[in-house]
Specification:
Radius of gyration: 13 Å
Shape: globular
Oligomer: single chain
CATH topology: YaeB-like fold
Number of strands: 5
Order of helices and strands: EHHEEEEH
CATH superfamily: RelE-like
Number of domains: 1
Distance between the termini: 35 Å
Number of helices: 3
CATH class: Alpha Beta
CATH architecture: 2-Layer Sandwich
Length: about 110
Amino acid sequence: MGKQPRAWIVDFDSDAVIDFEDVKSRGDRRAVFNVVQKLKDLGPDLPSPHMKSLKGEANLFELRPKQGACEARPIYARFGGRFVVLAVAAKKKDFDRAVGAANDRLGRHG
């Protein structure tokens, strides 16, 4: 028997859950769940284009559903052996607001 692969923990900040409600398209919602599952499966080994580190934000990363073809962008950080989705930008126009919110919420975790 081979070694069982490690499953990473991915939590959602309670306010990120509220952000996620702004993602109206069922396809986009499914795409977000799929990329979160990839993060659970691969953790820090999740490759681009499924994730990207944010320039100027040392601890923040964005998930890129549908390899970037979906507008919704969960913003997350790693805390040891787990990840926390801190904010969700439902549309491109919401991205800067989501990054600011993620920075504000960083202190709640860790």
